[in-house]
Amino acid sequence: SFAEVPHAQPIAVFQLTADFRVDPHPSKVNLGVGAFRTEDGLPWVLPVVAKTEAQLARELEESTLDHEYLPVIGHPEFTRLATQLSLGEASPGLQSGRAAGVQVIGGTGALRIGAEFLRRWWNPELGGKCPVYFSEPTWGNHLSTFRDAGFTDLRKYRYWDEACRRLALTELLEDLESAPEKSVVLLHACAHNPTGTDPTGPQWLQILDVVKRRNLFPFFDSAYQGFASGKLDEDAAAIRLFESHGLELLCAQSFSKNFGLYNERVGNLVIVARDSAALACIKSQIVLLVRAMWSNPPSHGARIVATVLGDPVLRKEWIGCVRTMAERVKLMRQQLYEKLRQLGTPGTWEHIVKQIGMFSYTGLNRAQVDFLIREKHVYLMASGRINMCALNSHNLNYVAESIHDAVTT
Ligand code: PMP
């Protein structure tokens, strides 16, 4: 029987939302969610996505589209256009046929399939014992996907300077420098979750230098392309830099945030291999992994993304939507910062406006977070991470005043 099965720990971010839902307080605010919210606090179906879905529905009705299985590695136009969005049109890997994408189940599926592949084929003599480095802090699911793929030596590289609320570059470089050769290193392509702090261009060059010298394997996570700077190319600069130096790499690309297609699970695992023959072998192995895991990917989200990226008019409209989301986040940063200054809240708050992407790492400590949840009904992650677009003109003053009280009580 299953009498021995212990109850697992709830997943923090989902537990937070469940607690928020049952809280009857009229001023409650949920800053924990990992999705875009409009000024009215609602989810946003991008107009260009809704329009494309209507078109796809017509095509299904007219039988010019169907529900046949996709190839195991996915919708060919989707993977081609998605990979191009990540690596850029001038990508040497794409031009020489040694880069390609595999359609997977969201960014999470890309991380998991990538990890499954690396455990079997990167450093095969070590297998699951190959060290994997994650930024400290990082997105919680990074460790889980690699652990469940069989990696046992999960390590941290220092990333965050708590005192100065900025990137701990020296420590980061030190930790990668002392990593055993051929370790895997997970890098956030942009809009680092949860700190909202990315390396600058010159800092990326220093990271690239260590990765190359130590022969580390770079695995990028790109879940927020367009959210950091509002510009798609700029947000992919780190991946392109590594590619331009001839490195082999993987990149877990998610369309959950920048297309607002969260529950459609649209992801692409970008592969840059040494040459086209190696790429063909890698893809053939990934086919086997996918076949045994979910067999074939779902088509709906991939069709939407492929249609939009492949049509210049729709693509332009989509770029406008991404900019709208990025700008709303920036506006909320500015307003929260100004309000805290106006209140004279002790401490420095410039990091709120300096950080980028959907999240801010407020620097609020555990006691202050507990106070906000318990006394103010303002829900946020224990790490102090808040989703900037969960703020709006209706709740911003209340949140700022609550933070002020948390800091001064
Ligand atoms: N990486 C990071 C850093 C994320 O924040 C997320 C989404 N929260 C993902 C990957 C995975 O996204 P998806 O929902 O597409 O699996």
UniProtKB/TrEMBL annotation:
<protein>
    <recommendedName>
        <fullName>Aspartate aminotransferase</fullName>
        <ecNumber>2.6.1.1</ecNumber>
    </recommendedName>
</protein>
<dbReference type="InterPro" id="IPR015424">
    <property type="entry name" value="PyrdxlP-dep_Trfase"/>
</dbReference>
<dbReference type="Pfam" id="PF00155">
    <property type="entry name" value="Aminotran_1_2"/>
</dbReference>
<dbReference type="InterPro" id="IPR015421">
    <property type="entry name" value="PyrdxlP-dep_Trfase_major"/>
</dbReference>
<feature type="domain" description="Aminotransferase class I/classII large">
    <location>
        <begin position="27"/>
        <end position="403"/>
    </location>
</feature>
<keyword id="KW-0808">Transferase</keyword>
<dbReference type="InterPro" id="IPR004838">
    <property type="entry name" value="NHTrfase_class1_PyrdxlP-BS"/>
</dbReference>
<dbReference type="InterPro" id="IPR000796">
    <property type="entry name" value="Asp_trans"/>
</dbReference>
<comment type="similarity">
    <text>Belongs to the class-I pyridoxal-phosphate-dependent aminotransferase family.</text>
</comment>
<keyword id="KW-0032">Aminotransferase</keyword>
<keyword id="KW-0663">Pyridoxal phosphate</keyword>
<comment type="subunit">
    <text>Homodimer.</text>
</comment>
<dbReference type="GO" id="GO:0005829">
    <property type="term" value="C:cytosol"/>
</dbReference>
<dbReference type="GO" id="GO:0030170">
    <property type="term" value="F:pyridoxal phosphate binding"/>
</dbReference>
<dbReference type="GO" id="GO:0004069">
    <property type="term" value="F:L-aspartate:2-oxoglutarate aminotransferase activity"/>
</dbReference>
<dbReference type="InterPro" id="IPR015422">
    <property type="entry name" value="PyrdxlP-dep_Trfase_small"/>
</dbReference>
<dbReference type="GO" id="GO:0006532">
    <property type="term" value="P:aspartate biosynthetic process"/>
</dbReference>
<dbReference type="InterPro" id="IPR004839">
    <property type="entry name" value="Aminotransferase_I/II_large"/>
</dbReference>
